[in-house]
Amino acid sequence: MSARASSYTPDIQARGNGIWSRIWKVFWNERFLWLMALPGLLFFVVYKYLPMLGVVIAFKDYNLMLGIWDSKWVGLKHFYRIFENPDIGRIFLNTLIISFYQIVFAFTIPIFLAIMIHEVSKRSFKRVLQTVFYMPHFLSWVVVAGIFYLMFQSDGAVNNMLLDMGLSKIDILSNSDNFRFMLVLQVIWKESGWGTIIYLAALSSIDMELYEAAKMDGAGRLRQIWNITLPGIRSTIVVLFILRLGSVLDVGFEQIFLMLNPSVRDVGEVIETYVYQAGVVNGNFSFSTAVGLLKGLIGLIMIFGANKLAKRMGERGVF
Amino acid sequence: MKLPGKKVLSLILACSMAASMLAACGNGGKESNASGGQSTGDAGKKYSVSAMNILYGAAPPTTNSTGIKAIEERYGIEYKYIPVAAGDYTNKVGVTVASGDMPDMMLMEDPNANYFNWAGSGMFLPIEDYIKDYPNLSKIPQEIWDMLTYEGHIYGVPRLRGIPFHAMVIRQDWLDKLGLKMPTNYDELYEVMKAFTLNDPDGNGKKDTYGFALDGTFSGFNGLFGSYRALRFGWFEDGQGGITHGYLMPNAKDAVSYLARAYKDGLFSPDYTIKKGTQADEDFLTGKAGIIGNWAYTAFSKARFDKAYSVNKDFRVTSVPPLTGPDGYKGYGKYHGFYGFFVMPASLGKDEDKVKKLLSILDDQIGDEGAEFMKWGVENEHHKQENGQNVLTDKGLTEGTGKYVLTNHAAEGEWIYNPDDWDELKKMKDENFKVALEGEPYSDQSIGLFSPTYSEKGKELDQFLTDQVNKIILGERPVEDYDKIIQEWKGRGGEQVIKEFNEAYQKRKQG
């Protein structure tokens, strides 16, 4: 690229041509590349950037009749309303705690799982394992929640079995002590297998000679994992971790909405379910947009922060 | 699939923006066309009539349908029927109104904040001057027209429903088996619920039944606490000339403590909070609970009883006459008598003949003969005679006139039956209809009233109340806390809602 660009410098020396004509020259030279990129660019402009303009309704009283542009400006009213709610602290805390659990458990387990699959030497067995682990990902949350209700409600399969065995019933669905724990277990069961895909790809690119060399030096299995496998996927883990932090306030609306009930709302209500109730059900689109904007902002800060931290620790980061 | 709220929202907004832009462009041309064409036509011309209506279940065909053809022939119109699935209906109405291209008749589900907004900004055609000219419309009770009146104008023709609302329904075969008699007050009800829980009414040797089918959203409280006149999401006369929220009525705390005691004694399913109204219904039909609180006469349907009979052939139910409340009151809450109403766009005002045509169609469907036609359709095509009784044919079930009905006959006498009801079901339906209106039935006063605060925060406020009351029932908070909860509810905006609803109520009372 740079070599090509420098070859045009003689043209630019023509007097009176400013920076624009220089840009035009570069552009003209690469016109076919741009042409090829055009559909992709259009896609992003039309479906990603134009809708973003709708974010102005966070600062307006959006009225369906008046439309986006003619609705009244109200400044930060909807942002104030977020903090007026006496429950907002609890809701925010719930979101952070559930998100923390998910990062500690649901984020790390796929790494271990991927390494374990990687260590399986028989190819056909590995394939079978992978397929089995991927399966739950393709069930929708509605199905998973339905299964959970049928199994664990007070007269469900599990409790009936326990009762027949002479044991006492267990309460999983409406018990506020273990609700978050159950949520994270569900995520682990459903998404761990799927989460291994990227790690497995990274693992397959590790040079096999390293393992042979290590074996010659007398390193055992665990030693090899610690000194070769893990360092081999370290940068992948860091990148995924940074991206995960960007959605730290997204804890999975569908899942939590389906599992939530009045008994566990104190520990289970998160920002997304609150926005659904306050914004969408009540038809208060401005309010839900304001919350969404705030969430996006926090996510952005988290990504920048984590990226900086990663760079300081000697990793490459995402940008 | 994870859908962050903002993305979905911006998508919706973008779509509706695009839709409204397109519609706005298209509309200008079309409208001038239409008015030009109509002014030259004569009064007896064939109007094209479009109608948007809410749809439950499968959509009927909207082209090439014998039902539509029969309707077109009856009214001499070209009929364009637009069914919209119930789940999307509210959104669709918003987008339709925003686009400025409303169909000739459009169903609004209830007189909500949007309705008042739109009526106020002159979107709809006032029809109060015409009503007296139509024999069936003029027979609709004034009470109902009052609920639809906004600033002196009526903008909608109601879809009539029965006045009776939810009543309590009990397993008669369980009562008989345990040798119990029908409860008449709340202490007796408690004993019956206890017996249903402890004495194995289904005779399977296991303690797996409960007294009452309770759910976490409290959908059965009109039946259960009818005579308490409390714990309902409605606004009722407070006896001092104003109205107040059902959770603030004098007996509300009593009702909560009744529930807490019953939960402690195990009369409800221990994890009732995970259930919604449909699961409670399921529990009742499959013999897990002996009493349910939200069965109006419309609940007596073939589908429900088929399900119940498939579990237990002896399933028999009776509607419980209103119990005597703690203060001696007897009666269930009433329904407001209509579900949804049809509005017309203000632009129709230019064409009075068409307005009259539309009103005559709605009027006809409320009258005996028109309603009969809409229910059964054309003989030998949509229905046939079997043993001297009308039966819908397969065609009648999929594309009969009943699939395109707009409004209907007042719910009285024979008109409350479905075509597939059998005699025993009709009898139960009649009984429920009658029982729900025994004693002194009372109405929710807030229908047709508008409170800006309630329309903004209402759902949150209601949820706060159910959550806290659930905690009391579960024993996580003492019953004494109820007053504190109400105070907190007021602080969160309830006070303002009370004020606004009362102002609107007084304004309506003074006419």
TrEMBL record, chain A:
Keyword Ion transport applies: no
Protein family (similarity comment): Belongs to the binding-protein-dependent transport system permease family.
Protein name according to UniProt: ABC transporter permease subunit
Statement: the UniProt record of this protein carries the keyword Repressor: no
Pfam families tied to this protein: BPD_transp_1
Domain of life: Bacteria
InterPro entries tied to this protein: MetI-like, MetI-like_sf
Stretches assigned to the ABC transmembrane type-1 domain: 92-306
Organism this protein belongs to: Paenibacillus profundus
Keywords, sorted A to Z: Membrane, Transmembrane, Transmembrane helix, Transport
Compartments (UniProt record): Cell membrane; Membrane
Spans through the membrane: 32-59, 91-116, 128-152, 192-211, 232-253, 285-306
Membrane topology: Multi-pass membrane protein
TrEMBL record, chain B:
Keyword Lipoprotein in record: yes
Keywords carried by this UniProt record: Cell membrane, Lipoprotein, Membrane, Palmitate, Signal
SUPFAM superfamilies named in the record: Periplasmic binding protein-like II (SSF53850)
Leader sequence segment: 1-23
Highest taxon in the source lineage: Bacteria
One Pfam family cited in the UniProt record for this chain: SBP_bac_8
Transferase listed as a keyword: no
Protein name: Extracellular solute-binding protein
Source organism per UniProt: Paenibacillus profundus
